[in-house]
Amino acid sequence: MIHEEKSHDVVRKSNRQKAPNLESLRNLSLANPQATALIAGVDEKGAAVSMTAIREVPLTLFVNDREVVTMMTIGDLPRELAVGYLLNQSLIRTPHEIVGIDVDEEIHTVVVRTKTPTPFEKRRAALTSGCAQGTQFLDMMEDLTAKRLPASPPYRASSLITLGKAILAAPSLYQQAGAIHGCVLAHGARALIYIEDIGRHNAVDKIAGYMALNAISALDKVFYTTGRLTSEMVIKTVQMGLPILISRSGYTAWAVSLARQANLTLIARLRGKRFYVLSGRERVIFDEPERPDLPDPISEQKNAQHPKNTSAEKGTHHGKRG
């Protein structure tokens, strides 16, 4: 089935349509009934078991009549993913360049039509460290040297800790099946939008597209990812204009260097009340008292689990990540 949207429907402006409700956390990916499938198998004793698995669906993106990329995704939010990808790759500068979006669910394609041609074929691409093998245009990395995020409202450590707890407690596809990454757009301590996908770069692009199509300001928002903090994550966050990037995971040296260069506040290894601010510490208000005796919640959870640790198999929120 083809869903077509004309130019006046592409960006939902506040004077024409009610803005989305951002008062409480919504995991948009949970609305996708095709995101998971039941898989039959046997356990270590040979007993039959039924397990939930994430589905992988190819989505091919066209700009006008040119094929740009095929992405492996969970099949939801194709408009947001397409627009976010184009914005984060600087293939378009603003959603107002788009005159229409056509989605064909049967053949898994999305066609974005723009006012003027987009000469993406002349640009140099590089494979990224994304777990679903993303791409990043090299001139985009070079353009980052000229970008520096403006000053933004301060962020309290207490809000950061509350946010982390809220995200962990929120229903998710990860809780159902694992093998998936999540990204959250937040305001202060309040998580607003939760989106998941196989690759963390897909989840980022969906957030970017959702923000663009709903005209959501980035200046007072923070961005949370369950994945590693790599150069790709920093570049995309800066492209989106978000001043603070948070992760429960680790980081690369280049990501930290790029974040410092772009004036991005980078916060890694958020676990309970523990975290590391690696750049942009001037935005953070340290209003939480030090608790050196505070146990590590991740270690406690692992110790409480059965010796056969399934969290490593899930590989997104706990343990190693793809």
Written description of the protein model:
Helix 2 (78-88) crosses helix 6 (200-213), helix 6 packs parallel to helix 7 (231-240) and helix 7 runs parallel beside helix 8. Helices cover 26% and strands 30% of the residues. It has ten helices and 18 strands. The model is unreliable at 13-19, 124-134, 291-302 and 305-322 (pLDDT under 50). With 322 residues, it is of the alpha/beta class. The strands form five sheets. The protein has a seven-stranded mixed β-sheet with strand order 2-13-12-14-15-16-17, sandwiched between helices.
Features:
18 strands, disordered C terminus, single chain, 30% strand, 322 residues, alpha/beta
Layout: helices, strands, pairs:
Elements: E1 2-6, H1 7-10, E2 26-27, E3 36-42, E4 48-54, E5 57-63, E6 66-73, H2 78-88, E7 98-104, E8 109-114, E9 125-127, E10 135-137, H3 138-143, E11 155-156, H4 157-169, H5 173-177, E12 181-187, E13 190-197, H6 200-213, E14 222-225, H7 231-240, E15 244-247, H8 253-262, E16 265-271, E17 274-279, E18 284-285, H9 297-304, H10 311-314
Helix pairs in contact: 2-6, 6-7, 7-8
